[in-house]
Write a structure and sequence with these properties.
Helix content is 58%, strand content 9%. It has 411 residues and is an alpha+beta fold. It has a domain of 276 residues.
Length: 411
């Protein structure tokens, strides 16, 4: 480690429990001597093992926790805890291998229909950044297609046994299934992703036409991604993938979208930075500036360095150091990560929106975000009350009313 936690200014302000410090120490694939000594020292303290396992599960870091405990081989780890982690690791490995094979089958479908596709996150990120698909937890598969292929992709996959579903509740899923072809196409044209499920194959698939929703208007267009791709080996073939520079920006944007709730998001970025030490940082900064995503980028990089000791060039350190908002958000997220009882349900829509607005740089982008977030109806709004087409304009009133009611309920 570059810094002992107590020497880190962010952790000085937010002291860690032994469980949190142990989890952070173990949330990496490469461990140096200082990290190993730190873990052995922490294991001598009174550890709340149940809390540690719950935190690791919440932050999706159980595989790394097991791997590093296995490397340390300390007698201080209770046998039942180590056994439970080992069983989970074997189960996760089997599940990951199964999903990797399913991904190959799906990529074959795209090849047969001559549709360019970029698989990302899931087994691809696990294999390329972590070095082994067993080291990262994932439950679904993510694919990026060109905007002009989005509707065609949906139909092809539905012909192969997939069906649309909503990842929130059955009411929204039923609404999606009730749409006719024209309504489905209208829905797809205005959304950045489509959730699909094949119940027979037990696969959930997220097909994207962009990396962020339309609320983040500045990043909605994905053509910049397609202009800079590369082929990487995966299983027995070559698959399209993001360039290293684009991948770093994408991971920072994905973490920002989710308000960096999970340590696994920081792990993903830190592992990519570790395995791509030759990236062109000038190119990354220029692209981030062009996309108006510099703040998102710097926040992600600040977290990767301050939480997991990711190596960054002096150029990036200087950019972070003079950005007061990035430093403030870094501190807020570290407080969130060090919370004794993490709970994603505590993140209300209002809190998420306010965090997103801090990340958005341009005033017009903030206005576009507020319009999309507060005014534009969602599936949840349309499934809440079914209106005839002649009265569909009323959904623009339903949306803010439902948001206000949700705010009152949460407060």
């Amino acid at each position: 480690m570059n810094q002992v936690f107590l020497e880190n200014k962010y952790f000085q302000q937010n002291p860690l429990t032994p469980e949190t410090e142990l989890l952070i120490c173990c949330s990496r694939t490469c461990m140096d001597e200082k990290s190993a000594i730190k873990i052995k020292t922490l294991l001598q303290e009174k550890i709340n093992w149940q809390h540690l396992i719950e935190m690791a599960s919440y932050h999706k870091c159980l595989p790394l926790l097991f791997l590093n405990f296995n490397k340390i081989g300390s007698q201080a780890i209770p046998t039942n805890i180590f056994s439970s982690l080992q069983k989970y690791y074997y189960f996760n490995t089997q599940h990951s291998l199964l999903l990797a094979s399913k991904l190959i089958n799906i990529l074959n479908i795209f090849a047969e229909n001559e549709i360019p596709v970029i698989p990302f996150k899931g087994p691809i990120l696990a294999a390329t950044a972590y070095g082994d698909i067993s080291r990262r937890s994932f439950g679904d598969l993510d694919l990026l297609v060109h905007r002009e292929d989005f509707i065609k992709t949906k139909q092809i996959l539905m012909d192969k046994g997939f069906e649309p579903y909503a990842d929130s509740n059955e009411q929204e899923a039923a609404y999606l299934k009730s749409l006719n072809i024209q309504e489905q196409e209208a829905y797809l044209r205005s959304h950045w992703e489509l959730h699909l499920i094949n119940r027979n194959e037990q696969i959930t698939l997220d097909v994207h036409q962009g990396i962020l929703s339309k609320k983040f208007l500045f990043a909605y267009n994905s053509e910049w991604i397609w202009k800079d791709t590369k082929l990487i080996p995966f299983v027995d073939r070559q698959v399209l993938s993001f360039s290293a520079e684009n991948l770093i920006i994408i991971l920072c944007s994905q973490g920002g979208k989710d308000c960096w709730l999970y340590l696994s998001r920081i792990c993903d970025l830190a592992e990519v930075l570790r395995t791509h030490s030759d990236v062109n940082w000038e190119k990354i900064l220029q692209l981030a500036s062009k996309l108006r995503m510099t703040r998102m980028l710097l926040l992600g990089l600040s977290l990767a360095h301050n939480v997991l000791d990711a190596q960054l060039p002096e150029l990036i350190f200087k950019k972070i150091e003079v950005n007061l908002l990035v430093k403030t958000l870094t501190s807020e997220i570290i407080i969130q990560l060090t919370c004794n009882a993490p709970d994603s349900s505590s993140q209300s829509q209002l809190k998420l929106a306010l965090f997103h607005l801090k990340l958005i740089e341009h005033p017009w982008d903030k206005i576009a975000y507020c319009y999309e977030h507060i005014i534009v109806p969602t599936i949840a709004d349309k499934s809440f009350v079914r209106l005839p087409k002649t009265l569909s304009f009323l959904y623009y009133f339903v949306r803010p009313l439902r948001m206000f009611a949700s705010f009152l309920k949460q407060n």
